[in-house]
Amino acid sequence: MNYLERIQAPHLDILKEVGNIGAGHAATALSKMLNKSIDMAVPSVKIVHLSEVSEFVGGDEMVVAAIFLRLQGDAPGNMFFMLPLEEATRLIQQVTDDYTISSGNLTENEIGMSALCELGNILAGSYLSALSDFTSLNLQPTPPALAIDMAMAILSHGLIEVSKAGDYAIVIDTKISDKDDTTQSKGHFFLLPDPESFKIIFHSLGVKIDE
Amino acid sequence: MSNVIQVGMADLKYANSPNKIRTSGLGSCVGLIIYDEREKKCGMAHIMLPESSLARNGVLHRPKYADTAIEDLVKRFVDEGSPVYRLKAKIAGGAQMFNFSSTNEVMRIGPRNAEAVKVLLEEYKIKLISEDVGGNSGRTIEFNPDNSILQIKTINKGIKEI
Question: Which residues belong to the signal peptide in this entry (chain B) (predicted)?
Fold first, then answer.
């Protein structure tokens, strides 16, 4: 039987909590780094059909800066931290204190790209270590990889593993945003556990999933 | 009135002139267009995986895999009276979105998808007219069955036609 058919409302709530704890720690890390308040939205957990992924990431050609990490260990999966390109540029300007960086030249700016990659690494790292503590699972991220491209093209990379097992992906999505940001552009954490990992995550939290 | 038909991820759709057909955000996926120039008809598949044997359980979602997607495309054209020798193909996609030093097979899925599609086209004796595969950028593609032009958009190289 398909694993998705066994997932019910309480399970989705657990996954929400997973997103909440992970992104909460990441938001704190970002807030300390920038010395600013960072807001976090209540995580959403959605079961998305592959053909609907493009609407899900906010339009099919939305350009984002994304940091990708593959999780290894007890519960393998993929993790992305995505920011709209404009937002990523602003963040990098603040972090590097170099205001000559623009969304047009970011990819050619070695320091800027490196800072962005490191920023993503810190955020994703705090997400994961919180997750690992919460579940007492051993989770190790691969070194981060950075790409600036269409959101859907990037996300689809993380869906390859999921797509072997079915046509739906469980996406744990948490938005964070700058408190005094009026434009309301947001960063997203996407956690895409491999299909086999759900059972392990639920089990480690003491929740049964019917066989 | 002409419409643009949208093909989602792991999806397969058909279009007749004057309509166009497009799929967006091709990363490691491959967009395969098979068309009949004379009838001005085409079909497009957004392929995620090279072969259906990779599927781990139950019911196959056929458009997702290179082998089953091509089989369905060809069958539909033949059923509608287009002989296989008149069919032509164009492909785009199969990029490697992230540069990892790792040789992990998941990381190489883009090139593998493109390779699988090309081998299958050869097996079916369908002529591959043009291709834009590999690299490391996402692509949005739009095909016009009226003039058989495939337009490819990437974020840093603009628009090109093949």
Answer: none
